[in-house]
Amino acid sequence: MSTSIHAVAQQGYGAGTNDLYDRARPSYQSNAVSHIRQAVKTAGAVNVVEIGAGTGIFTRALLAHPEWKDSLGKLKAVEPSAGMRATFARTVVDPRVSVAEGSFAATGVEDGWADVIIIAQAFHWCPDYEAAAKEFARVLKPNGVVALVWNLDDRDAAAWVAQLRDFVEGHMSFPIGLWRTFFGLPSYGASFKPEKEETWEYTLPGTLEIVTERALSSSSIAILGEEEKKGVCEEIKKIMRRGDGLVWRDEGKGEFEYPYKTNVVICEKQA
């Protein structure tokens, strides 16, 4: 299925890169995970398909959440990267959970099986949104939902975050926000109700090491050579030394507020 994977994602999230990704990326806020559960109308056991499940960061948050841990039926994780699947299998241990190769347009899940499809931090990698909409409609039960989730640096909360995002995004090889075209596609409109979006703002503990590792875990930076990565680290140091708008938690320990937000978009399938 390698032809269905964006080339940068395939290389940047290949073998040897995923321990850094799993360590550096933050988990998901409890209120966002709860919001997805409340959007699912199933009263009994909930069947979940998680596409682009990566190293299992979202899956672990779901399994630990009080509203999910007892209501989950089965979770079928779909992940095209062999390296990420290996990390997922090592870090997610639950008899209700399985992980397999697949893509947005070819999940390998049977017709009408899922109550919810969850895609966390991955839908921007989709190469064919029209095909994905058709696959989602096929896999979901009537009134099932797709939940698109992103943890994002909050560039509007502090100037240093905006500078960091501008620098990191300058290495990216795809347009930011292209995934929003999904909602205007014929296949989406034929099967789904208008999308509903919620955003939660918060701060996480930050250090220079945390900021640097999160930047290095970006696929577009992970594929760079070692000298180029050194240049990335130096530029991040410059941004953090200026510290425009930075709020310290404990300056002596080098710990500051890292503004974040989580976006969740709920797409309900028509009955």
Automatic annotation (TrEMBL):
SUPFAM superfamilies in UniProt: S-adenosyl-L-methionine-dependent methyltransferases
Matches recorded under Pfam families: Methyltransf_11
GO molecular function, one term: S-adenosylmethionine-dependent methyltransferase activity
UniProt entry keywords in alphabetical sequence: Methyltransferase, Transferase
InterPro entries linked to this entry: Diverse_substrate_MTase (IPR051052), Methyltransf_11 (IPR013216), SAM-dependent_MTases_sf (IPR029063)
GO biological process: methylation
Protein name: S-adenosyl-L-methionine-dependent methyltransferase
Annotated organism of origin: Athelia psychrophila
